[in-house]
Amino acid sequence: MAEMTDSQQTAGVAETTGTRGSRKMRTGLVVSDKMDKTVVVTITRRVPHPVYGKMVTRTKRVKAHDEENSVKTGDTVRIMETRPLSKDKRWRVVEVIERAR
Questions:
Q1: Which of 10, 42, 47, 76 is most buried as measured by Cβ atoms within 10 A of its Cβ?
Q2: Is the pLDDT of residue 82 over 80?
Q3: Distance from C-alpha of 28 to C-alpha of 62, rounded to nearest angstrom
Q4: Which pTM does this prediction carry?
């Protein structure tokens, strides 16, 4: 009982110091702002095709929390992973990188 594994010891240290693991940060384009305090952001990344090697565009749509309702369609934003806020929302808007013209 007194013996603790290394993972249990490090978990105890993390709880006492108040640190948390690194969170995912992504940059994307806002495609919808019609919901209240929620925006839909597309995250686009380019990856090589597993067989042919040609660069292929992969797009992921995520819902992000926007507390001030200040983000509009066409803005480029930085979002951060967070705890589940609703059924679909797992991200929140950290900053607006570029406003839509």
A1: 76
A2: yes
A3: 10
A4: 0.76
